[in-house]
């Protein structure tokens, strides 16, 4: 009886719980409550063991079910990439919605579930916009701020006005029969149609790889003009309520003022909330477990507060995300940052999926469909034409002030990328039926525009982009050198962009940076974080973190963490290698002179299966072998060539949040660069001045440690062996993955040697000789140990720094003489030395 | 900092430089601002360390080579005209606004661009990319999990592909030829380096 009573207490509140779900569903619920609720009372005499209380859970249950269904839909759609390559996911989701809607319609004869403005604007949209703001490529965004604002504000107003006026003109001309729509209503309709939808745009543009400037222009525009549209919509809505006769110059001026107040007030509010979040994360040290929550809650509050003050909620949450990203990422624990990122993606993706599915479902409803060929077709035509005109005209103006103009093709794509989406639909549904007689016509037109742009333009976008850049001509197989060369060009371009300060470096930015450095960071960042904030250092830090993680993972794989506890062993392990190399060096150099010829032969024989000498003679017989090896080599290049940074950075992606590959590469490259700089710095230094100090590690001390660790090496070697590692595996891909550790040695050590060899020995020769010369100890170790010292080298300073202050050096330049270890890292990159010396990063 | 020089008057020989490199005044001005920004100690010349201070370059596998491409052999510093001349290689060709016909070969022609790339490989400047030189580049460009053996065989094969006269090295002509054989989609990228910039006005 107790539980029954509880249920009765809860169930009557029809009005409250349905506000979360779709009101249409709510109505349904309500009616069912009324009928079944009574019968529940009638049967309540005995003590039930189990009761079926569907109505008790109905609303949340349905919501959960819909989320599940939407998620499954996405899963099914993404299962096969052949389809999504042609048709954008958003279009497929809408189609899926059609089917679902059809099923619901078939069962109920009424569309029970539709996308309502409340649900859309309060529960689905905020997280998408917050996600966009939080992941906004800030530099690019603010670098192109001017253009984005012009497109977003002027472009949107232009779209709204031109569409409204043209439709009105056509109406007057008699193109669409008898409709009860006045000029103001047309303008209202125009304003709701003006929003280019970020959700739809990103979904499509993400699959079409356009350059990053174009991307940020379209993305930024679509994001901001949502805000602008809503503002515009509200202004016109107010005008419509006022009625045509009441509007005079004063009201119009008020409208314009309110437009700016709403837009900029919203942005400012977002900014304030962003600062608030940043400040808050400064002091969440002791509650790290819930600190990610603050971002979401405060972001949502920024949205709601703006809504409450009738400011632009969308702009507010965008700027909240944009402002806080830097500080919260610095302030919060790494784990919290990852949590925020992933949660953000989960929420945004989830709601995006829901939105598209429900956009589809909403269509299957007989009651909203009113057909007026003239109105619908003219709308489609006008939004297309005016979008093109607007973009081209604004770009023409912008190009006069832009250093690098926006190209013709880019303009075409920008214009064609004017997809309309759920924001327009949400606004259309919000129209007041009492004031606008043709509300249903507007809704159905909006739906058709949305379907047309998302599905048709979405599908044709990709072919259009490819078609406009026809240059690709015949796809011939690239030669290796070309492949390498292409990457070289990529890297060169990235470097030149860096050098020339690709994104304008100007007065305002300088001032802002200064202000930001001096005041904002001071106020908003934890003191500890501020110190270690620079980029170079943070990469180094992450490097260490990653090593530590994989280090532990490795230990777990072996079933014991014993080797980790043996701390000192590993630091010295690495030192031993350094020693071996420096010892080996003189030998090589001595041997080189007489073994020169022999060395070449050996190398050719054992390393290259197709020696160049024999190639000419045996070209025919080698042919087959060559081909397979060609494939392997190409494959290898494909997989391991570093990508130009450009391709990864500055990109916002809604659904993909994979940083791993990229980060790894960055770390690798960074590590190597630092090492080689270190080297060049040292060699320069060595030539000029004699070393000043002797390391704290005396030779003797070190040798002792080396001896002590000898056994560790072999035992680890065995451990790996036992785990079934096949060193002689010869298939290419396999080797690549398995020998991850082995390959590291050579490139890592090479730069150390180059400057030290006075004789002109081709490094590859030397390298090979080195390998073969040291076969017994090192190669075995290399092959057997995926966890070779070079991997641990990065970790080592981390630990070593507890004992001495020469950590960075010790670690990164194992092959150099001991006495150099006291020298500090190079000046070229100012950041690392001081922070490392402090050991402050521990 | 950069704005203190926001006038063409401060740039030495601005007119000649524009003639020579084909940069527009706006480009030149912006590059000058950038140059001043990079020139931390205000000497009017950049040292390799100044380049090294650019964060992004540390993450560029061949960043050091590119930096050294700015310095002519034996020189420790680079002044503004030379700086601009090097950058002029990367101006898109086809839009030569200010060039008159007096020069025989514009800096940003395809050949000159290729030459620049070629010199990134050819560190000893003997006009040939030897196997060792190629190997060095490869080593920098490929992930560290590629073994030395694999590097060797890649270098070997790459040389064989391009090497027409069988001297086991790639000359500039051979290099050029390889790049011309197949026009591929990626080539256009080398012509648009400075794109996403808004005017600093």
Automatic annotation (TrEMBL), chain A:
UniProt name for this protein: Sodium/hydrogen exchanger
Substrates-to-products reaction catalysed: Na(+)(in) + H(+)(out) = Na(+)(out) + H(+)(in)
Domain Cation/H+ exchanger transmembrane: from-to ranges: 81-467
The UniProt record lists the keyword Phosphoprotein: yes
Biased composition (Polar residues): 27-38
Topology in the lipid bilayer: Multi-pass membrane protein
Subcellular compartments: Apical cell membrane; Early endosome membrane; Recycling endosome membrane
Superkingdom field: Eukaryota
Organism: Lates calcarifer (Barramundi)
PANTHER family membership: SODIUM/HYDROGEN EXCHANGER, SODIUM_HYDROGEN EXCHANGER 3
Bias-annotated ranges (Pro residues): 825-835
Record's keyword terms, sorted: Antiport, Cell membrane, Endosome, Ion transport, Membrane, Phosphoprotein, Signal, Sodium, Sodium transport, Transmembrane, Transmembrane helix, Transport
A Gene Ontology BP annotation from the UniProt entry: regulation of intracellular pH
Keyword Hydrolase applies: no
Main subcellular location of this protein, as a coarse class: membrane
TrEMBL record, chain B:
A GO-annotated cellular component: cytoplasm
Polar residues bias: start-end ranges: 179-190
InterPro entries: Calcineurin_B_homologous (IPR051875), EF-hand-dom_pair (IPR011992), EF_Hand_1_Ca_BS (IPR018247), EF_hand_dom (IPR002048)
Subcellular compartments: Cell membrane; Cytoplasm; Nucleus
Name of one Pfam family that matches: EF-hand_7
Region of interest (Disordered), ranges: 176-201
UniProt keywords, alphabetically: Calcium, Cell membrane, Cytoplasm, Lipoprotein, Membrane, Metal-binding, Myristate, Nucleus, Phosphoprotein, Protein transport, Repeat, Transport
Any GO BP annotation: protein transport
EF-hand domain residues: 109-144, 150-185
Keyword Calcium listed: yes
CDD domains for this protein: EFh
Any GO MF annotation of the entry: calcium ion binding
Similarity section: Belongs to the calcineurin regulatory subunit family. CHP subfamily.
Name by which UniProt lists this protein: Calcineurin B homologous protein 2 isoform X1
Organism field: Lates calcarifer
Originating gene: chp2
């Amino acid at each position: 009886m107790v539980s029954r009573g509880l249920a009765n207490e809860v169930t009557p509140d029809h009005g409250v719980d349905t506000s979360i779900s779709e009101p249409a569903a709510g109505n349904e619920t309500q009616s069912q409550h009324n009928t079944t609720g009574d019968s529940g009372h009638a049967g309540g005499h005995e003590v039930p063991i189990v009761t079926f209380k569907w109505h008790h859970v109905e609303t949340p249950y349905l919501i959960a079910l819909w989320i599940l269904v939407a998620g499954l839909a996405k899963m099914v759609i993404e299962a096969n990439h052949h389809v999504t390559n042609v048709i954008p996911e958003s279009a497929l989701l809408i189609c899926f919605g059609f089917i679902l809607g059809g099923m619901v319609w078939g069962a109920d004869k009424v569309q029970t579930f539709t996308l309502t403005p409340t649900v859309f604007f309060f529960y689905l949209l905020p997280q998408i916009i917050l996600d966009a703001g939080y992941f906004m490529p800030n530099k690019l965004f603010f670098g192109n701020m001017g253009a984005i604002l012009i497109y977003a504000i002027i472009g949107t107003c232009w779209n709204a006005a031109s569409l409204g006026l043209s439709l009105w003109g056509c109406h007057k001309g008699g193109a669409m029969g008898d409709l009860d729509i006045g000029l103001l209503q047309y303008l209202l309709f125009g304003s709701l149609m003006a929003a280019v939808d970020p959700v739809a745009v990103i979904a499509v543009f993400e699959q079409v790889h356009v350059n990053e400037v174009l991307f940020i222009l379209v993305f930024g525009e679509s994001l901001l003009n949502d805000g602008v549209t809503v503002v515009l919509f509200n202004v016109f809505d107010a005008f419509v309520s006022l009625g045509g006769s009441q509007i005079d110059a004063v009201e119009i001026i008020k409208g314009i003022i309110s437009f700016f107040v709403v837009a900029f007030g919203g942005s400012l509010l977002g900014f304030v909330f962003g600062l608030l979040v940043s400040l808050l994360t400064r002091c969440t040290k002791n509650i790290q477990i819930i600190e990610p929550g603050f971002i979401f809650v405060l972001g949502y509050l920024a949205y709601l507060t703006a809504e409450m003050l009738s400011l632009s909620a969308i702009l507010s949450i965008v700027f909240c995300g944009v402002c806080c990203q830097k500080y919260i990422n610095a302030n919060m624990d790494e784990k919290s940052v990852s949590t925020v990122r992933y949660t953000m993606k989960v929420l945004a993706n989830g709601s995006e999926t829901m939105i598209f599915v429900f956009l589809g479902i909403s269509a299957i409803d007989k009651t909203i469909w009113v057909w007026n060929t003239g109105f619908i077709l003219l709308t489609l035509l006008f939004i297309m034409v005016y979008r093109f005109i607007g973009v081209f005209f604004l770009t023409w103006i912008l190009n006069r002030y832009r250093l690098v103009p926006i190209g013709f093709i880019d303009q075409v794509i920008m214009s064609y990328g004017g997809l309309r989406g759920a924001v327009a639909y949400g606004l259309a549904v919000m129209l007041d039926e009492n004031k606008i007689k043709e509300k249903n016509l507007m809704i159905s037109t909006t739906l058709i525009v949305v379907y047309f742009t998302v599905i048709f333009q979405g599908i044709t976008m990709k072919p259009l982009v490819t078609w406009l850049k026809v240059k690709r001509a015949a796809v011939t197989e690239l030669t290796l050198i070309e492949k390498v060369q292409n990457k070289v060009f990529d890297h060169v371009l990235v470097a030149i962009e860096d050098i020339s300060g690709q994104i304008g470096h100007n007065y305002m930015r300088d001032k802002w940076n200064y202000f930001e450095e001096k005041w904002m960071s001071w106020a908003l960042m934890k003191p500890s974080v501020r110190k270690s904030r620079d980029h170079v250092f943070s990469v180094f830090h992450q490097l260490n973190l990653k090593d530590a993680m994989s280090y532990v993972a490795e230990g777990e794989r072996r079933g014991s963490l014993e080797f980790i506890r043996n701390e000192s062993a590993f630091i010295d392990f690495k030192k031993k290698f350094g020693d071996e190399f420096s010892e080996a060096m003189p030998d090589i150099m001595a041997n080189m002179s007489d073994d020169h010829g022999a060395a070449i032969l050996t190398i050719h024989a054992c390393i290259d299966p197709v020696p160049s000498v024999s190639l000419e003679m045996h070209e025919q017989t080698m042919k087959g072998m060559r081909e397979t090896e060609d494939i392997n080599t190409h494959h290898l290049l494909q997989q391991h060539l570093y990508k130009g940074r450009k391709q990864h950075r500055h990109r916002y992606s809604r659904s993909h949040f994979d940083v791993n590959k990229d980060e790894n590469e960055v770390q690798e490259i960074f590590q190597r660069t630092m090492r080689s700089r270190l080297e060049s710095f040292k060699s320069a230094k060595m030539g000029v001045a004699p070393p000043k100090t002797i390391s704290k590690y005396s030779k003797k001390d070190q040798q002792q440690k080396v001896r002590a660790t000898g056994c560790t090496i072999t035992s680890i070697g065995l451990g790996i062996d036992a785990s079934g590692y096949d060193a002689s595996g010869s298939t290419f891909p396999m080797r690549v993955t398995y020998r991850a550790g082995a390959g590291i040695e050579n490139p890592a050590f090479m730069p150390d040697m180059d400057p030290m060899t006075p004789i002109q020995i081709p490094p590859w020769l030397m390298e090979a000789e080195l390998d073969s010369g040291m076969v017994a100890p090192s190669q075995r170790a290399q092959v057997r140990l995926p966890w070779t010292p070079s991997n641990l080298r990065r970790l080592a300073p981390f630990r070593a720094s507890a004992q001495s202050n020469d950590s960075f050096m010790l670690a990164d330049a194992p092959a150099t003489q001991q006495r150099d270890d006291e020298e500090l890292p190079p000046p070229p990159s100012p950041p690392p030395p001081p922070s490392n010396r402090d050991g402050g990063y521990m | 900092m950069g704005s203190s020089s926001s006038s063409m008057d401060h740039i030495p020989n601005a007119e000649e430089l524009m003639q020579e490199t084909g940069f527009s005044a706006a480009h030149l001005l912006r590059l000058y601002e950038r140059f001043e920004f990079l020139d931390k100690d205000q000497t009017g010349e950049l040292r390799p360390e100044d380049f090294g201070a650019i964060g992004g370059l540390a993450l560029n596998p061949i960043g050091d080579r590119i930096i050294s491409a700015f310095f002519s052999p034996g020189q420790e510093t680079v002044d503004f005209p030379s700086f601009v001349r090097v950058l002029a290689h990367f101006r898109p060709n086809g839009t030569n606004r200010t060039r008159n016909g007096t020069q025989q070969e514009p800096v940003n022609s395809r050949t000159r661009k290729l030459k620049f790339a070629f010199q990134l490989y050819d560190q000893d400047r003997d006009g040939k990319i030897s196997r060792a030189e190629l190997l060095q580049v490869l080593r920098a460009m490929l992930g560290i999990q590629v073994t030395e053996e694999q590097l060797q065989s890649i270098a070997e094969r790459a040389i064989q592909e391009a090497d027409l006269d069988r001297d086991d090295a790639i000359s500039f002509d051979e290099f050029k030829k390889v790049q011309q054989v197949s026009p591929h989609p990626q080539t256009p990228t080398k012509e648009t380096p400075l794109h996403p910039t808004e005017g600093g006005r």
